């Protein structure tokens, strides 16, 4: 059954491999996936270790429900200390990797050390082997995956791989599987590169016995119907995440020209409907594809219709590629978005980060902080499509002065570029923000400021705040599974009640990441989607383990606190602009200039923001500095950490 | 009434939920290696084709079986294996032109699609209806309508173009 | 036991609030429910005056494709000018477009 999937410790320096069962007590405290990874990171990473050194442990995992008869258990989680932020590194991807790893017998890998030469790890039905990857070095992400299949003679092998960006230690290189599923954020690909680890390949045909198969099957049908019945998921299934970008641009909630504008006007060629037309023209009417066991199928397939990359097949683009190669650099051509998306997928680099880095450099170029001297003659102005794509190549291959500098990540790059370049960098904890603008939405601003892996929307964003839900609906969602009778406001511009919403979503998303399911199956974009009260049944039918909704909530709190403890240990301090829960000054000082009438002219009020942070900390059980109090540690059973149970 | 499984591979998203529910339905186990249906993929081009048992009329698996263990279900028309007779020679696996007869290494048994006894779970869970379960005497009606719709639409389009000329 | 099979969860009970055939005005302070006539490609919010292009995901599921730029950017520019006037924040913002 799911609970007999093991953990493997692989030391690439010595070649030593050890496998162990995962005790039920550990499952009951951390479930699996990201939560258990956080425990492993806190226990295995030496304080202050070099993120690109052999001591940094790399965790690859599936959740407790991975490959069971639950819906969309496709997510693979990857964790290590981040070479981008120096704090928590954590990234999550869809596709088919984690389920295949579960059928091969494993839920968790802990990879340490550094191989002398390029290697890949091959896991097949309980056996683990370290193999030569010299012939794979320099290959793109997809070339690597197909080559491994050919070498081992099995087309069902799934691999998590790095591309050239990971090999070159670009600090926001990602780990990828399939055509475009990417564990994108915080530079997990660079950690693999630093270990000379090109890929982890898995293949399994081992049974996962379902505890109550008839109930699991029936309940799964009910669960899926609830999920696919939501308008948001029907729209996702037709247009993918670009629909979010389209809607966000419509009212003025995204970033354009780094942070100068909060809307890209006349973006008609990169609107979701236009991208959908291209997919229809180049693939056909049925051009959506999905991750393992998921009926939302939110990923488009396309071929690039024109230009230098014409005819190339790829998947996506997602919101972040529209941001990275559209609104941020102010480029308006679908062709550029699709080509940029293809390049990042092949190189294996985080599209979000690279788009933000280039847009930042473009603003610096516009301001004269960098010139053609630094760009080696490249005209790096906003709206220059060719320059944008050229910079992608240069960063991923570390070509030229600027390419190499930008590959180091925002804060180190700002130190090398100097002057006041740092002021223009839209980051939290050293990681760039999603291409969204939170000046009109204090709740969302609090989310990116306090997210555990740096500016990020997938850790605690109360996205449904934008729906103006009636208060009784808000009460229904946010007063469960633990009671809450404090303020809640349907008004997205309010500061009141938002800290509780961010806290609630922080726990909700952690629970989802521990289960190994997708966020489109919970209260992220749809208010009526499953959450704490719905999960105990799914867990019970599939694994036989019993939890109450409140117990799941507590597990999520526990795991969030572990991430917090790790960040604090590695130097997080509340108001530090580079390593804290603080926003760039532009959020407080520069009013928004575009969008709906109530969105223009907005800034975040510094005083009210600080009050929100105080309140959020207090919900989390943290003191004014953001440190978990001894009562919190006691309540969540964390006062013995690191406890080295695994 | 006899019904048959049909596949419209263009609709398949490649999610493999059908493989999961097939193995859970039959064995109470999640394991695509136990699934009667398998999505074959050309990932580098984005083509996905669910492969199923065609329940052939002149069925090679039935013809080749040396002990007569494979017979046709009278109610639903699918081919079924009698495991009390089966000797596990795997001749049916070798001879099946679609790879739809499978062999399970753990249980040491051949296995194939039995239409879940009349309610195929792959169909129930596929919201794209890339796999469907339709009346055998009616299986081309939908195809005809779809083709006719395309013809109709293109003729209308052609008429518009002619008007413009 | 933990798995009460009879009681509806919060998310299950909220599902009846789902509405099809309508879109919400993208002006966050307005959020008026607009009901486009089947097949139309354009709608104007009677409450706040914003105008949108409509796309039909399915025959019963319209969505806002995007703003009618000429109309909505003018509304935004006027709103910004008004706000900067009252807040005296003029020096900090460049022109709205």
Descriptive account of the structure:
Helix content of chain A is 39%, strand content 12%. With 646 residues, chain A is α+β, with helices and mostly antiparallel strands. Chain A has a 6-stranded mixed sheet, with helices on both faces. In chain A, α12 (334-347) runs parallel beside α14. The mean pLDDT of chain A is 97. Chain B has one domain (3-137): 2-Layer Sandwich (Alpha-Beta Plaits), CATH 3.30.70.20. Chain B has 5 helices and 9 strands; from the N terminus they run βαβββαββαββαβα. In chain B, the strands form 4 sheets. In chain B, strands 1-9 form a two-stranded antiparallel ribbon. Chain B has a two-stranded antiparallel sheet with strand order 3-4. In chain B, strands 5-6 form a two-stranded antiparallel sheet. In chain B, a hairpin with a 4-residue loop joins β3 and β4. The longest helix of chain B is centred in the C-terminal third of the chain and has 24 residues, at 141-164. Chain B is elongated and about 70 Å long. Chain C is α+β, with helices and mostly antiparallel strands and 97 residues long. Chain C has one domain (18-86). In chain C, 25% of the residues lie in helices and 23% in strands. Chain C contains 2 helices and 5 strands. In chain C, β1 and β2 (33-34) form a beta hairpin. The radius of gyration of chain C is 20 Å and the shape is flat. The N and C termini of chain C lie far apart (60 Å). Chains in contact: A-B, A-C. At the A-C interface, α8, α9, α18 and α20 of A face α1, β4, β5 and α2 of C.
